[in-house]
Amino acid sequence: MLNFNKHINQIKKGGVNVIIKKSISFIYLILQIPVYLISIPLIILIRLIKPWFLLRWAALLSNRIGHFTINTELYCCERDAEINLPSQKYLDFFYIKKLVSNKQLEKMWRRSSLIILPSWLLIPLSNVNSFINIFIPGGNYHKVGNTVENVHRNSNLDVHNLCEKFQPHIGFTEEEEFEGKRILAEFGVPKGAKFVCLIARDSAYLDRQNEYNLRDWSYHNHRDVDIDKYILSAEELAKRGYYIFRMGAKVNKPLISSNPKIIDYATSGMRTEFMDIYLGAKCDFCLSSVTGFDGITYIFRKPVAYTNLVEFGCMISHHKNNLIITKSFINKKNKKKLSITDIFSSNFEQNLTADKLELNDIELKENSPEEIRDLVIEMDERLNGNWNETKEDLLLQEKFWITWKENIKRLNLKIPMYGKIKSRFGSKYLRENQYLFDRN
User: Disulfide check for 416: which of 159, 185, 218, 371 has CB 3.0–4.6 Å away?
Assistant: First the structure.
């Protein structure tokens, strides 16, 4: 009944367009009946040969670019490292569902070492397997990443520090390399010039993905940031010889600057899905507010300066050149800033929502323009070998990660949240915010 009401509400919202889409989906379902019938004996056969040869399958998480990049890359790295693999001979298949966040990325995964089959074949097979599993258990063995050890891939964390051990599993063709360089020249970027990708999360992208305008994405709003607070950093980077590309498939407002090195690519009219991937793959580093675009720089092993991070339980700690600073958690009643231990003790470290913060009278304060500028200065100077790290900086860095690990361990999680910690918290931010180390 709930499903029926959902369809009625979608039709009311979307009108004729929704009726057409649903009619096409219904016809497609009818046409798939023969595939479902063939899938029944196929599943029985697949189950029977499992002791000698295991066939597994899964959908690539293509609707969100962060998952489409990182989750897929981590699977490839684990496969190459022979981690979390079946004990017997096996073969893995993948399929891609209807919603694809980036078609260029889809093209690149399809020509990679992954075996990607049509969804019209694997979805019925998967559904039949799940149905049979109700009566005859054992079907879960045929799902890629079903075991507890593999579930951590869903959190996008490289807990085995594999990305530093393997090269990226996708790349550009000669024609794509030529096209990317040509478009960079159109933007006025000289050959060999340094450039940074700047991505500041706002609600526009998820609102655009809101199919039939029925899903409410506002629970993510606590992650949003103001692009204006990144202008000072962009100007600083331009002084240091970088070009800056403000990224975004859809944004709420433009980045306004008269500096020719600061390019609002998101609103330029020249944005394409190909260049999204090309810029993320070729940048010197990314300045981010922690959002899906980071996945592109992640899989191409590019450093990221993370600002305004809110999920303390999910630090991106695997990359030696990553830098991190966070939003401040402030108690509305007494105006006190919450320490790391306070945040974990209040269960704000992960799965955070805007409603949860509101219910507990907690507000988040964005990083200031100066804090973000200080972070990009540190990133630039570290990458160029000019960063002067003091004894105090080293001690604060060690203290931060010890405090963080102690709190992670208190959660008693079955799934690992980090491997060898190589990333750094922003040095100047730590010097100026030592309340983070306070205890309850």
Answer: 159
Tell whether pTM > 0.85: yes
* Neighbour order of strands in the sheet with 323-326: 262-263, 243-246, 195-199, 285-288, 304-309, 323-326, 424-425
Decide: 88 and 124 in contact? Cβ < 8 Å: no
The CA-atom distances, in angstroms, between 433 and each of 15, 339, 403, 421, 427 are: 53, 9, 14, 21, 10
CB 270 within 8 A of CB 188: no
* Single-letter amino acid code for the residue at 280: G
Contacts of 125 (CB under 8 A, 6+ apart): 39, 42, 43, 57
DSSP 226-292: -GGGGHHHHHHHHHTT-EEEE--SS-SSPPP---TTEE-GGGSS---HHHHHHHHHH-SEEEESS-T
Please name the residue that has the structure tokens 């899964």. 58
pLDDT digits (tens, 9 = 90+) for 224-253: 899 999 999 999 999 999 999 999 998 999
